[in-house]
Amino acid sequence: MNENFKSGFVALIGRPNVGKSTLMNRIIGQKIAITSNKPQTTRHKIQTVYTDERGQIIFLDTPGIHKAKNKLGEYMVNVAEKTLKEVDLIMWLVEPDDFVGANEQRIADELKEVNVPIILVINKVDTIEKDEVLKVIDVYRQLLDFKEIIPTSALRGSNTDTIVELIFENLSEGPMYYDEDTITDQPMKQIVAEVIREKALHALTKEVPHGIAVTVEQMKQRKNKKIIDIDATIVCERDSHKGIIIGKKGAMLKKIGINARYEIEHMLDKQINLQLWVKVRKDWRDSEILMKNYGYSKKDI
Fold first, then answer.
1. Terminal-to-terminal C-alpha distance of the chain
2. What is the dihedral of CA 121, 125, 131, 135, to 10 degrees?
3. pLDDT of 165-211, one tens digit each?
4. pLDDT of residue 203
5. 95-125: pLDDT as tens digits
6. At what angle do helices 160-169 and 20-28 cross, to 10 degrees?
7. What distance in Å separates the CA atoms of residue 148 and residue 169, rounded to the nearest whole number?
8. 257/278 Cα distance (integer angstroms)
């Protein structure tokens, strides 16, 4: 192992839909966190590991910090805020806008209380002109004393090598926390559930996805065969939502299943037999018991 091996925990924070999961997946080199253009895609604190000869970075991709509207929202914000107190470095992702909104102001106020280096990452710079980026940098520079400010496009992979370089520059020497071939601490069942939820987020209309959860009841490899049987349930909050998720003659559920199966097969390099069901659990996002059943437990915060 390199004598000057560095390691540490790095939080990716920002408001919902700013590209945190896309950036983390890009750096890790494969998909761990689900992505979509809908807010509140990431609900858990997802831990992924990047290792090379310089050291090891453990990324914590947090849910977006936002004004909570229900108990699930409160859970997500608590997860994100607690993470700030546990890390060696913070990467704050913002969009390339020179107007600082209420959510950004709230995050800036919270970051004033932390004592670790903060790197500001201005994402999606491929959507604006270069001189506009300078305006954004000037505005944010007045908010906080950042260790570094770096523009990037997580989607296109621009400047991601520089981001990794800057992280290592700001970490101390430390141990290898995980084996070098480890890329996540997520259980496979949870990753599969999240892939199914992502495909549902992509396929469904705006009002339904916020109210869905996915549970994997069974994941079992057949004896002497390279086939895995997976039984999963999409949970929604209303009967009308159930109808939308199933679709006309089951077309929507079939589409979600085909897209999820394709990605899970690619991920596991095995043939998948995926069975999907849809259940209604009214207002589960405001029920601590149901939230716990679907993997959102306060004790994990």
1. 33
2. -40
3. 999 999 999 998 888 877 776 778 888 888 898 888 888 876 676 67
4. 86
5. 998 888 888 888 888 888 888 999 999 999 9
6. 80
7. 11
8. 12
